[in-house]
Every structure is written in structure tokens, then in C-alpha cells.
Amino acid sequence: MGMLTRQIVGAVGSVAVAGTVNVATTLLTESRTVGWIAFVVALFAACVAVQFGLGLLGRSASSAMVVEDVIVDGSINARMTHAGVQRVRGATVGRDINLEQNGN
Question: What's the pTM value of the predicted model, to 2 decimals?
């Protein structure tokens, strides 16, 4: 699942959770004001939780590609299909270094 899809699912889920809290609170307290206050608090908490979760997911170990301290007679070809960081350090390469990144 891509990052945009996760963001959309998170946003829809946050509104669904907050809406459920609103309805439940309104039914239990019979007060619309308390229901709307609970809705806003639940929406804020759900959005913070989703953004925190997306931030942690976005920093997975697979978001970095490192070629370090290698000796290669030929070429180095590296391709990433997602957003991340590519680094080459301390490498001795006989021909070419080709780095490609097709991520968001």
C-alpha cells in the first residue's frame, strides 16, 4: 500500500472514529454540545495517532540504500522503487555508478 493510500485510509478512519464517538456521546448524554466536543477531541486524537503511525512507517529500514566500503571492477547499478535515500561511501568502482529512484 502506497503512502497516499495510507494517508487516505487514515483520514477516512479518523473521521469514522470521531463520528462514532460523536453519535455515542450524543446518545449517552443527550447533549449535542458534549457530543460535538467529544467529536473534535476524538478527531484530533485520531489524526495525531495516524500521522504518528505514518511517520514511523515512512522511516522503515527499507527507505535507505547504502553501498559502503566495496571494491567493484565493473559497475554499480542500484534502483529504488520508493522514496528513500541512496548513499555510496568509500567505494572503489572500476566503471560506472548508476543510481535510479522512482519513488514519491
Answer: 0.48
